[in-house]
Automatic annotation (TrEMBL):
Pfam families: Fer4_15. PANTHER family: FERREDOXIN (PTHR36923). Keywords: 3Fe-4S, Electron transport, Iron, Iron-sulfur, Metal-binding, Transport. Its cofactor is [3Fe-4S] cluster. It comes from the Bacteria. This is Ferredoxin.
Length: 83
């Protein structure tokens, strides 16, 4: 019996998978800094509200962009979480 398969325990952190970007619409003021700067992970709807375009985030570049978007949001309306 060889048991070499791994990584099926439910959640992972920091390895490029299982990260989600969330927007708190009640906190968002619609500046557009997030989707203007990081269109690979955020777009906007007709009202100018941000829309998450990748859920969950899949690549290291997407995760980096999401974390950068969190940093530029002056309202702290964006968060990332492990999923
Ligand atoms: S930067 Fe923050 S406040 Fe501005 S649109 Fe994006 S989520 Fe909303």
């Amino acid at each position: 019996m060889t048991a070499t398969s791994a990584a099926s325990s439910g959640h992972s952190t920091g390895n490029g998978t299982g990260i989600r970007l969330n927007v708190d619409r009640s906190a968002c003021a619609g500046h557009g800094l997030c989707y203007g700067g990081y269109p690979e992970v955020l777009d906007c709807d007709d009202q100018g509200d941000p829309v998450i375009v990748r859920d969950p985030l899949e690549t290291a570049a997407e995760i980096d962009a999401a974390r950068a978007a969190v940093q530029v949001c002056p309202e702290r309306a964006l968060t990332v979480e492990s999923v």
